[in-house]
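Today's session is about reading a structure prediction critically. Students often jump straight to the picture, but the first step is always the sequence itself: look for stretches that repeat, for charged clusters, for runs of hydrophobic residues. Only then move on to the predicted structure, which in these notes is written as discrete structure tokens rather than atom positions. Here is the chain we will use throughout the hour.
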Amino acid sequence: MTESNCDRSAVEIAHEELRKDYPNGKEIVVIQDNAKYNHAYGNSKHAKSLNVTACFLPPYCPNLNLIERIWKFMKSQIMHNEYYETFPEFFEAILLFCSRHENGSPEIKSLMSQKFEIFCFWLKIKPAFTFEKHQ
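Below is the predicted structure for this chain, in token form.
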């Protein structure tokens, strides 16, 4: 989903699908970025009805957003010291990158670690997040 093709109803459907995958009724915590569609009016009410709690990433913290790690890696692999004459050449480079890493290369796996540490210098604390895997 992107800003251009996502809206409130798409987020609601995603929460409903998530609840279907985890039907036990326990609270589901969804970590979301601050895209407008995640804050759309009514999402919190609908999520609450499904026992889904949205936890929003702090602004300007790309280290917490896993996809930002992928974008940075992809950019270093296909754009560093490269010039593409045409958009189709650039697009082909992206497709080649994706095909090389679609099964989870060691580089991608190392970027997608579920261990996060946030250093809150202004609070002088170091919280650590861990995530329980679905079984």
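Discussion point for the tutorial: The mean pLDDT is 77.
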